[in-house]
Each structure stands twice: as C-alpha cells, then as structure tokens.
Amino acid sequence: MTETNSLSRSFLVGLAGCVIGLLLVARVFGMIGSDATNFVGFGEDSTRINEYAESKLGREVAKRPALGHDGKYFFVQAHDPFLLDPEENIAVIDRPLYRSQRMLYPLLAGGFGVFSSTMIIWGLLLVNVFAFGAGSFATAVVAERMGGLAWWGLAFALNVGIVSELNIDGAGVIATALAFGAVAAVLCGKDGWAVVLLSLAGLSREVMLVSAVGVGWWVWRAGRRRLASFVVVVPCAVVGLWAVYLRFRLGWESGANEAGFAFEPPFVGMVKALPDWLDSPLDMAAGLAVLLLLSAYLYRTLKSNALVGWAFVGFVPLTLVLSELVWTHYFDSLRAVAPMITAFVLMVFLAKESIRNVDPPVSGRPPVGV
Fold it and tell me: What is the pTM of this model?
C-alpha cells in the first residue's frame, strides 16, 4: 500500500507538470497568437527550411530573428525519421548527420513518419508537454526515494532550462525526462527499465550518454557490476548502431565538415563569448551562474554521493568544452545544463549524507547516499 501511495503521489506531481507545460504554452499563445509554428523556431535567415516548411504546410510560418532555433530541424526530421528519402527531407538541414542522431523526439512527434505537416507542428509541442509531466513524475519518484516530498518533482517542470526547451520545440525536455526516469528506475530496482530509458535518452540527445556513464559508475561502486556494464554498454551500443545506420543512409563521408561546431577546447568558447557578454548583462549573469553551478554541483555530488548527482556529473566537463554559440546567449547556456539544475536542487534540499559516512558498497545494495 505504501508503494501504491507513493506512485499515486508521484502521478499527481506528473499531472501538475503537464498542467505547468500547458499553462506555459497558453501564455505564449496569449501573447503572440495561437499559431503553433511560433514554437518551432523557424528563423528569418533559414530560407531553405522556411521554403520547405511553407511548401509542406501551404502557408507562411512564424519566424524568429536570425537562424531561429532547434525545432525547425526536428520539423524536417519528423517527416522522414528513418531517412528513407534523405534527398527530399534531411538534405535541407545544415548538419544532417549531427541533427539526425537525435531521432526519438521527431520520431514521436511525427507519428513514426505518418503524420501530416500540420499534425507534426502540434506533435512537437504536445510531446514536450507530455514530457513535462513524465519528467516531473520521474523526479517525484527520485525525490521520495531520497526521503523528500513528491512535490519536489516540480523542480523538473519549473527548471528554466527545460522551459527554454519547450519554447523552441527542443529535444532536451524528453531527453532529460528519460534520464530522470532511469535514475528513478535504478532506485526502485527496475534495472531493465533503467537500461531502456538510458538508451532512449541517448537517442534523444547523444550527450545523454554521459548519464549512462554516471549511473554506471554509481552502480559499479555499489557492487552491482553486471548492471553497471549493461547501463553503460547497451545505451552506447544503441546510439552507435543508429550512427552506423545514418552513415548508410547519408553516405560514409557525411559528417566530415560537421565536427567541432558544438565543442571547442576547454574554456575557449566561454572566452570567445566575453565580448558579447559585455553588451548583454543578462547573458553574462547566466554564463557566470552556469560556471558557479559547475563547481557547486561537483561539490554536492561528492558530498552526498547521490545517484541523481552522479547521473549528470558528466555535464560538468562537457559544459567547459561547449562552443561560443552555446555560451553567448543565456537561453542556450541554461538549456545546456538543464539536467544539472534539477539534480542540484534535489541534492541541496534532500541529500544530507556526507560521502565520508557512506557504508562500503555491498552487492545488490546501493550506498547510503541515494
């Protein structure tokens, strides 16, 4: 009965997360009208994709300044998620191999490639609203396993980085929700689900493989070596197999000119963003806040030894090598560390154990600091 009550509470938090997502969507609609293409992020300078979208929809789409945002790529991918006709669809995208690696979100939003263009526009939005609820549910389960109230699960839906992803039809909502679902699964003893959810998270955003490594490390230290191997190897293999498939569809030479645009040597992207920060106090404040979060997050993870901390600690070194494109604007820098924001809140308020007081790992049992 206790387990049932716990899941019921978490389910209510999940519903509240969905409601928050819907309210955020309604707020945008109230400000700029009910055209769902406002969320897709078509850009004024993205002429080729705009022409593609308008030919599919038979009408003009809402456009944002400059190149727009990620949603426009997922709109294209949703028409052909398995790249059966790459010349017709994925060819209009700037970095087809890189974009196609993130396949789960457009796959779901496009109904596995059968939805019409209008349905895809709404599908992109509704999948993320549902992911708001799913992520809140998973975070609520984690919070209760850490000894807190289920309502801490709203730290997912109220995460500024997650909200930013919703506003541009980004894949970060579903990717983060799946990763938190994997953490919840491990804490609940649902090992098979943890492996599946981490694999799906990697197919949503390949950087989520760092979560598989983090979870694997924590489980390994708990003495569960077999599970540790599965949670690392299987997601990496799934993402790798999809990458091989993409090269069959796009050509083995594809991607040769795509490497390096998202990552640079440590701190280089941040230094390059400094001149822009001087002209934008908000961007500077966000960038400095992210830097502060990195050090504070690492400290809290080592102190608490919480699984939710280790699951996303890989984002600390990853953030340091992000490119100038990410560091320049607060919108993007906060999205990049969104999983860490929610995990940090849980560790600060719920994880009280010091790593010095953690019992030695015993096979089949996690360390004290869950």
Answer: 0.93
What SS3 string covers 14-41?
HHHHHHHHHHHHHHHHHHHCCCCHHHHC
Instruction: List, for residues 309-366, the tens digit of each pLDDT value.
Output: 999 999 999 999 999 989 999 989 999 999 999 999 999 999 764 333 333 344 344 4
Residues 53, 102, 136: CA angle, nearest 5 degrees? 100
Pick from 203, 261, 263: which is nearest to 235 by CA? Answer: 203
Residue 55, judged by CB atoms within 10 A of its CB (0-12, 13-18, 19+), counts as exposed
Residue 370's identity, in one-letter code, is V
* Alpha helix (H) residue ranges in the chain: 2-32, 37-40, 47-57, 71-79, 96-100, 104-109, 117-145, 154-157, 160-167, 172-187, 191-204, 209-221, 225-250, 268-279, 281-304, 307-312, 315-320, 324-328, 330-336, 338-350
User: Which of 285, 266, 258 has its CA nearest to residue 90?
Assistant: 258
